[in-house]
TrEMBL record:
It comes from Streptomyces sanyensis. GO terms for molecular function: pyridoxal phosphate binding; transaminase activity. Keywords: Aminotransferase, Pyridoxal phosphate, Transferase. GO terms for biological process: polysaccharide biosynthetic process. Belongs to the DegT/DnrJ/EryC1 family. InterPro entries: DegT/StrS_aminotransferase, PyrdxlP-dep_Trfase, PyrdxlP-dep_Trfase_major, PyrdxlP-dep_Trfase_small. The modification N6-(pyridoxal phosphate)lysine is found at K186. Transmembrane segments: none annotated. The active site is at K186. The gene is spcI. It holds the Pfam family DegT_DnrJ_EryC1. This is Aminotransferase.
Length: 369
């Protein structure tokens, strides 16, 4: 059997009755759009985080775009983020009409190098957009301090960090707003697309509700600013409510896989993920590093193991963002990583025998490299 980096079928098998009950609950409810399930999920997701508001939207990319717009970010504004991220982080900034500005990441944990942010601030900077990549949180304290000093907004990209903590603080609870994705592979994943924005600012919450609903202030009232249709689907919201109750268990499952990999691969030439002190990693992906990455991936195919790279092309090197003017070599750590990292299979229901198969195959490949 082919071993893939992600697979939901074992989890579905275990949770089938609950998932299908969620679908039936919505179909029986008489309200298929923005009903009790979206409202219920918004309340429960906000409560999980101790935040005042949550607005469900259709995906994580639009959670970022609407989050930026609700914070007043638009054309002419610069948003400081990283290039070592999923392309949608940057696509969302572009969609809001703003200009992405990149800083490099730290070689230790591949997260935003917060020491570089101050030098990237210009008189057009309006927002800092840290990405809690792979399941670990960026150090928010220096970013908050900088944002307060310059009057900048902070939007957290939490698409890979549901349930992650740093210094005991949950991802998504430090910035002015936080964007989440519930794409199926995520730590909290739907059975289709979904997203949400968290905020404890009532005005931001109100703007988000307009932005996801054509720009209307209330149902069928006239609108001042044409916006989007970005509603969270009612069925996905009900499934997410059920799965939110199990979020901490999913995270524990991911940590158990990570521990088994760390034990099995200790002493090899593979650089394993490092948890930065204070972080509680949720292992959205298990990213390892090796200078001969491409050879390793190629040889693992013989074992029927297919691995992913998150991400093989830094966003600033993509032709769609060439106009931003980042030459090759401008973000050296990001560029070096892109050629050396790859991700091992990671999901809470990953069977033990597949975990061991990956470890044994990797050990064999590394010994004969
Ligand atoms: C998945 C992801 C997104 C986009 O989420 P979608 O729901 O796929 O639109 C944005 N940022 C990061 C870091 C992601 O991993």
């Amino acid at each position: 059997m082919t071993t893939r980096v992600w697979d939901y079928l074992a989890e579905y098998e275990a949770e089938r009755r609950d998932i299908l009950d969620a679908v039936e609950t919505v179909f029986d409810s008489g309200q298929l759009v923005l009903g009790a399930s979206v409202r219920g999920f918004e309340e429960e997701f906000a409560a999980y985080h101790g935040a005042d508001h949550c607005v469900g939207v259709d995906n994580g990319t639009n959670a970022l775009t609407l989050g930026l717009q609700a914070l007043g970010i638009g054309p002419g504004d610069e948003v400081i983020t990283v290039s070592n991220t999923a392309a949608p982080t940057v696509v969302a900034i572009d969609a809001a009409g703003a200009t992405p500005v990149f800083v490099d990441v730290r070689a230790e944990d591949f997260l935003m190098d917060t020491d570089q942010v101050a030098a990237a601030v210009t008189d057009r900077t309006r927002c800092l957009l840290p990405v809690h990549l792979y399941g670990q949180c960026v150090d928010m304290a220096p970013l908050k301090e900088l944002a307060d000093r310059h009057g900048l907004a902070v939007l957290e990209d939490c698409a890979q960090a549901h349930g992650a903590r740093r210094g005991g603080t949950l991802a998504g609870t430090t910035g002015d707003a936080a964007a989440f994705s519930f794409y199926p592979t995520k730590v909290l994943g739907a059975y289709g697309d979904g997203g949400a924005v968290l905020t404890s600012d009532a005005a931001v919450d109100r703007r988000l509700r307009q932005l996801r609903y054509y720009g209307m202030e209330e149902r069928y009232y006239t609108l001042r600013t044409p916006a989007h249709n970005s509603r969270l689907d009612e069925v996905q919201a009900e499934i997410l409510r059920r799965k939110l109750r199990r979020l901490d268990r999913y995270v524990e499952g991911r940590r158990a896989v990570a521990r088994r990999y760390a034990e099995g691969l200790a002493g090899t030439s593979l650089e394993l993920p490092r948890t930065t002190p204070g972080n509680e990693h949720v292992y959205y992906v298990y990213v390892v590093r090796h200078p001969r990455r491409d050879d390793i991936i190629e040889r693992l195919r013989a074992y029927d193991i297919h691995l992913n790279i998150s991400y093989p092309w830094p966003v600033h090197t993509m032709s769609g963002f060439a106009h931003l003017g980042y030459a090759e070599g401008s973000l050296p750590v990001t560029e070096r990583l892109a050629g050396e990292i790859f991700s091992l299979p990671m999901y809470p229901s990953l069977p033990l025998d597949l975990q061991d198969k990956v470890v044994h195959a990797l050990r064999e490949v590394l010994e004969t490299l």
